[in-house]
Amino acid sequence: MNETDVIIIGGGTGGYATALRAAALGLRVVLAERELIGGTCLHRGCIPSKAMLHAAELVDGIAEARERWGVQASVAAVDWAALTATRDDIVARNHTGVEGHLTQAGVQVVRGTARLTGPRTVRIEGAGEPSGEPDGEFTARRGIVLATGSRPRLLPGLTPDGRRVVTSDDALFAPGLPRSVLVLGGGAIGVEYASLHRSMGAEVTLVEAADRLLPLEDADVSRHLARGLKKRGIAVRTGSTLVDTELLEDGIRATLRTPRGEHVVVEAERLLVAVGRVPVTDGLDLAAAGPATDGRGYVPPADWSRLETAVPGVHVVGDLLPPPSLGLAHASFAEALLVAETLAGIPSPPVDYATVPRVTYSAPQTASVGLTEDQARAGGRAVAVNTMPLTATAKGMVHGRGGIVKVVAAVDGAGGDRGLPCSNEVESLGKTGEVLGVHLVGPHVSEMIAESQLIVGWDAEPSDVARHLHAHPTLSEAVGEAFLTLAGRGLHQH
Ligand SMILES: Cc1cc2nc3c(=O)[nH]c(=O)nc-3n(C[C@H](O)[C@H](O)[C@H](O)COP(=O)(O)OP(=O)(O)OC[C@H]3O[C@@H](n4cnc5c(N)ncnc54)[C@H](O)[C@@H]3O)c2cc1C
Ligand SMILES: NC(=O)c1ccc[n+]([C@@H]2O[C@H](COP(=O)([O-])OP(=O)(O)OC[C@H]3O[C@@H](n4cnc5c(N)ncnc54)[C@H](O)[C@@H]3O)[C@@H](O)[C@H]2O)c1
């Protein structure tokens, strides 16, 4: 029997980050991982997809150079082997880096599939091979952390074959990208992969069952995103469902039902299923320790302030958690800090999910934090809303790719529940209170959202922000200007 302080099952972002923080706080940690440290995000998710989206942006930049700036350039070809080698090198260097951090921190990484055998005991199958790691049963004196993550949700009758029907697990790892693709699901994965394939020259149809893309984001974000994707030649079909799929020799033939009830047939070389993810608990033997799954397979904590299940000492992080957790790598980092600090017995603030930024790395990008306008109004708040086009700034014109900054702020005192086109109306509405949400669409907004997450997280008001100037000329000026207007001091926005 191997005794330790903490056993973590799953070495993705949630699991490895819990291990690093717990070890830094002096706890002895065993981390069980059956595949590769880094999990979904590093090997099949965030990092390879963002590496390729960066390459896609460069391809788009060549078209812009030619069309707007007179640069006589064109893309002769994309050398797939070179592109994927760079991507794989980035992943490999990150992988080595994370493994190095774990070694330095003194975390004992055990390769194998773990299952619970009791509220404080775990069996790791395959441990002991090939390199003499201790085999078998481990006991945790402080607690166990479940961090087994998620996998793509599949639809009946659409079994991935790695060629004609794929998920995000294999879409980027085939020998090349298809000439045409039907993307099913207009969430973050569907939007990013549709954008990537289009940049690389594919014909893309993006099908979303809800009446808008990114249905959880602000309606204006969905509208501007759809407009930007359509402008790039992507066929966006919202409010549509897949009613039939026929496998062809070299592709698929899909029948879609449109919002009007019509049937439309689309043929494509590949169907990418991106309709969400489901938690992974199979083989964990949760019943042996006690924590239960909910109806959707998530492991809900009994105490969100400690992310602890109904079984004392058994904690959960990452994609295994139901909403309000967000299925995002950086949310899992925050959860990891909380759980490691809780296990170490030091005070730790609960995760404030309302201030976790949400970014989609498509072209155009979207980035948001806090409440959407509809959520703020549904919560009974009187709100002031100001929307500033990025192209109202000089740098926005330089980029020439549209975009918006939308700020939703509370209104204290007199005033009503209505939109706010200009600064004079702020005064007639009353004083604006704290900023409830910020929503960005356009180039580079993934990097611009950081200040807004502090603004929302620190309950700042537009007048607090308006005191601080933004460098000129930058895209961020549009954010500054949106707040200046809400504070009644607008310069360029009338
Ligand atoms: C295509 C794609 C793109 C994404 N892009 C982003 C992004 O840009 N930004 C962002 O914030 N998030 C992104 N995400 C989401 C992000 O990847 C997840 O939120 C994150 O990986 C969750 O981490 P996790 O530790 O909970 O689970 P995972 O990363 O899934 O890790 C779980 C680990 O547990 C291991 N495991 C499972 N069962 C056992 C067992 N019984 N024994 C031992 N090991 C086990 C698995 O092998 C795996 O390595 C993306 C996801 C996808 C699919
Ligand atoms: N940039 C990022 O942060 C990023 C990128 C990729 C993935 N992720 C995370 O990975 C997870 C999975 O992403 P996802 O996009 O697969 O899931 P998702 O749940 O965000 O989106 C799935 C979409 O598919 C739609 N849908 C469901 N069934 C459908 C059907 N039969 N036909 C048409 N549409 C259907 C849903 O309405 C939804 O809009 C999420 O937690 C996401 O946040 C994050």
UniProtKB/TrEMBL annotation:
- Disulfide-bonded cysteine pairs: these are C41-C46
Record's superkingdom? Bacteria
Q: Kindly identify the residues recorded as the active site.
A: H472
Q: What protein am I looking at? A: Dihydrolipoamide dehydrogenase
Please state every residue range assigned to the domain named Pyridine nucleotide-disulphide oxidoreductase dimerisation. 356-410, 431-482
Q: Please provide the Gene Ontology terms (biological process) for this protein.
A: 2-oxoglutarate metabolic process
Q: Which residues bind FAD?
A: K50, T148, G149, S150, D319
Q: Where does NAD(+) bind?
A: G185, G186, G187, A188, I189, G190, V191, E192, E208, G276
Q: What is the lineage of its organism?
A: Bacteria, Bacillati, Actinomycetota, Actinomycetes, Kitasatosporales
- Asked if the record carries the keyword Manganese, the reply is no
* Alphabetical list of PANTHER family matching this protein: DIHYDROLIPOYL DEHYDROGENASE, DISULFIDE OXIDOREDUCTASE
Which prosthetic group or cofactor does it need? FAD
